[in-house]
Amino acid sequence: MRKHRSTIGALGALSIVLLAPFVGTAQAAAPADRGAGERILTAPAAPEGAESATARGAAAVAPTLSPGADYQHVAPGGTFGCKAGNLCASVWDPTKSKWKIYFLYTCNRYYLSNWEGTGQYWNRQTGTPTSTFYGQSGNTIKSFKPFSGKRDQSWSPVWSIRNC
Question: How far from 49 is each of 53, 62, 76, 143, CA to CA, in Å?
Answer without folding.
Answer: 6, 17, 13, 30
